[in-house]
């Protein structure tokens, strides 16, 4: 399932960043987590125990399942706003 947007409904400026080397187009003001959700990305990192896929869970900065690495710094994807040109990689194991 893809988290698509309604065509023509969002008038905010486009922002382009990369995720795992792939370009992703978001809207200004989106969190990284929601931009990736809208782009169909569900796995943002792997769990520390069994290496299971983790993605957006609480979407409010509590669970840390959405950790990603932005230009070398680990952040929560749901509380970090996308910026044009940022380089986002899957997060490590906390
Ligand atoms: S989804 Fe829970 S902290 Fe981001």
What features would you describe in this structure?
- The protein is mainly β and 94 residues long.
- It has one domain: 2Fe-2S iron-sulphur cluster binding domain, sarcosine oxidase, alpha subunit, N-terminal domain (Ubiquitin-like (UB roll)).
- 7% of the residues lie in helices and 30% in strands.
- The chain is built from 1 helix and 7 strands; from the N terminus they run E-E-H-E-E-E-E-E.
- The strands form 2 sheets. Strands 2-1-7-5-6 form a 5-stranded mixed sheet, with helices on one face. Strands 3-4 form a two-stranded antiparallel ribbon.
- The longest helix is centred in the middle third of the chain and has 7 residues.
CATH architecture: Roll
Reported for the largest beta sheet, the result is: 5 strands, mixed
Question: In angstroms, what is the radius of gyration?
Answer: 13 Å
Provide the number of structural domains: 1
The total count of strands amounts to 7
Task: Indicate the overall shape.
Answer: globular
Structural class label: mainly beta
Small molecules bound: FE2/S2 (inorganic) cluster
Main β-sheet, spatial strand arrangement: 2-1-7-5-6
Low-confidence stretches: none
Task: Summarize the helix and strand pattern as letters.
Answer: EEHEEEEE
What keywords describe this structure?
single chain, 94 residues, mainly beta, Ubiquitin-like (UB roll), 5-stranded mixed sheet, two-stranded antiparallel ribbon, 1 helix, 7% helix, 30% strand, binds FE2/S2 (inorganic) cluster
